[in-house]
Amino acid sequence: MERIPILRMGKLLLVTIQVDMHDRLAMTLQDDLTSRIVKDSAKGVLIDISSLDVVDSFIGRMIGDTAAMARVLDAETVVVGMQPSVAITLVELGLALPGVRTALNVEKGMALLTGTEPL
C-alpha cells in the first residue's frame, strides 16, 4: 500500500505530498499522522501541498479534519505551498478550513510553527 512519508524535525512533523491524492491515501495519511503526533509528542505539523494541482471536496475536508485532530492532540498545523487553482477550488466548494493556518512556502510555514522570523 502506498504511503506518504512523515519526517520528524525536532518537535515538528513535515509531510510533503508529492503524489496525486486519492481517498484511501488521504485516510491512510490522516491515520499515520495522528499516530505520529502522539508517538513523537509533536507540537506542530507542516503539510506541503505544493505538488497538488487538484483538491476535491473530500481531500479538502480531510486536510481540515486532520488539522482539527492535531489540535486535539496539542499540535498546530500549517499548510504550505497551495497553488492558486487549489485555493480557488476550495473557496468554490465552500471549504473554509477553519483552524488551518497557511503560508506561501515551507520556510514561512516553519517560521509560523516555531515563532521565529524567516531569514
From TrEMBL:
Residue span, STAS domain: 1-113
Signal peptide range in chain numbering: none
Pfam families with a match to the protein in the record: STAS (PF01740)
Name listed for the protein in its UniProt record: STAS domain-containing protein
Organism: Paraburkholderia polaris
